[in-house]
Amino acid sequence: MPTPIKRTVFFISDGTGLTVEALGHSLLTQFEKVEFRQIRIPFLDSIDKAQDAVARINAQGEADGMRPIVFTTLIDAELAGIVHQADAFSMSYFETFLAPLENELGLKSSHTVGRSHGTADSSDYKNRIEAINYTLAHDDGITDRGLEEADVILVAVSRCGKTPTSLYLAMQFGLKAANFPLIPEDFDRGRLPGTLEKHRPKLFGLTIQPERLAQIREERRAASNYASLANCRYEIAEAEKMMRREGIRWLDSSTKSIEEISATILQELNLR
Amino acid sequence: MPTPIKRTVFFISDGTGLTVEALGHSLLTQFEKVEFRQIRIPFLDSIDKAQDAVARINAQGEADGMRPIVFTTLIDAELAGIVHQADAFSMSYFETFLAPLENELGLKSSHTVGRSHGTADSSDYKNRIEAINYTLAHDDGITDRGLEEADVILVAVSRCGKTPTSLYLAMQFGLKAANFPLIPEDFDRGRLPGTLEKHRPKLFGLTIQPERLAQIREERRAASNYASLANCRYEIAEAEKMMRREGIRWLDSSTKSIEEISATILQELNLR
């Protein structure tokens, strides 16, 4: 096997660096043959820190024998100028896009650092915290009180990803996401639990390939009927039959990330 | 008051669109005088959908009397080409950055769509799900079993943001984040709960301005001693004294977002 190409990548931001990292990451995944060592430098907000970053980038380049790749989102032009003096291949998100956008809008940007996540005193932030609390209190059918407040109610058999998806919807979008398990009693009765029926427009189903479900359940309760492939096939078939009959929209979570499942739900339920 | 400038912005992606939205949002927040109407079009993965998007953008432009602003991350060059025919001001993340990066790496990109979030069968994804389950099972001091597995243990008085921060660390970074409340008994005893002492290197504290804490607690339990400013001042002063004495790193969460708190914890504890 040939030695993989190795490159060091820095993500540098005056904020958390999460956005520039996500962005850079989506580009890097396009180069499968390269092994990227990724370093995030968040909260770069002073000349000292900018100079430290330059020293770190240059030292890394010498150690690697190859100049590092640097992605930045730095609003302060002076700090950006210092960081871009490093001996590196630099891609600057703000410098690239801000000027054309200023031009299009006919306005100068305010050059304010760190405004991209809502802070603790904003209403956006309060909504998120409230949504997280709601979602925790309405996980796995704990209670059917307050469902009229829910933005979405996920339904699925056990271990299809209801809880992580609900929490993501709350955390990322400030949505109140309840979730309910579909259990064999529901299938025997042949209809939705009464408490859910009146909230049908807010219901969204998750399903999964039975083989994958069996594997996930096996890790939790080995050699149980619960985890057996036959039982997983039965539960999934019944759940899909019920969702089809009740007109509940649903998706197969088998090969999807939490982000993809959540974005699909938003789109399908026309939320936000 | 002058009428605010209004512009419609589209975020278009072949994936969830979350990254391009975060990106665009960080630029848009630089223009406070403009009211942006933001529309996300995720999962654009066919010629039909690309043509629909063009129709939607053009219709919006006519309705607004002003061309929309379009941010895209579309890996497929044909789809990107169609979308960019719309009568809009377009900024294309991939087209702008991919070619220079190919050049630097001396490689062609694989042009594979939708690789930026780990999917359900990746080890990264399993780690995240496991971390979320761990964090839910170790919220608010529910149990002190299994703390040796924790990557980080947050400590704080009630209502400083322990739970949302723990969940974010698990969801975003796959970290096992436990959290423990600091309660008056701990202050009376004058030292950390014994169960936490042996995990000191993993401890991280949150604090908050007493005025802000009183306000948050008031919303939960109005007119209680728990929410009174005097009690909040006492608890915060004692908690900070304890953290200082025990050498626990901490931050003030008063004006920080969950993302900022989490990124700071990662940096301070040298995680990841």
Helical content class of chain A:
40-55%
Compute the separation of the termini of chain A in Å.
49 Å
Named CATH architecture of the largest domain in chain A: 3-Layer(aba) Sandwich
Strand content of chain A: 15-25%
Summed up, the domain count of chain A is 2
Biggest interface pair, counts: A-B, 73 and 74 residues
Structural classification of chain A: alpha/beta
Mean pLDDT of chain A comes to 91
Task: Quote the CATH topology of the largest domain in chain A.
Answer: Rossmann fold
| Number of helices, where a helix is a run of at least 4 consecutive DSSP H or I residues of chain A | 11
Number of strands of chain A: 8
- Secondary-structure element order of chain A, N to C: EHEHEHEHHEHEHHEHHEH
CATH C-level label of the largest domain in chain A: Alpha Beta
Stretches of chain A where pLDDT is under 50 for at least 5 consecutive residues are: none
Mass-distribution shape of chain A: elongated
Q: What composes the largest sheet of chain A?
A: 4 strands, parallel
Tell me the Rg of chain A in angstroms.
Answer: 24 Å
- Oligomer state equals homodimer
Strand numbers in spatial order across the main sheet of chain A: 2-1-3-4
Function (chains A, B): Bifunctional serine/threonine kinase and phosphorylase involved in the regulation of the phosphoenolpyruvate synthase (PEPS) by catalyzing its phosphorylation/dephosphorylation.
GO molecular function (chains A, B): ADP binding; ATP binding; phosphotransferase activity, phosphate group as acceptor; protein serine/threonine kinase activity
Pfam family, one (chains A, B): Kinase-PPPase
Catalytic activity (chains A, B): [pyruvate, water dikinase] + ADP = [pyruvate, water dikinase]-phosphate + AMP + H(+); [pyruvate, water dikinase]-phosphate + phosphate + H(+) = [pyruvate, water dikinase] + diphosphate
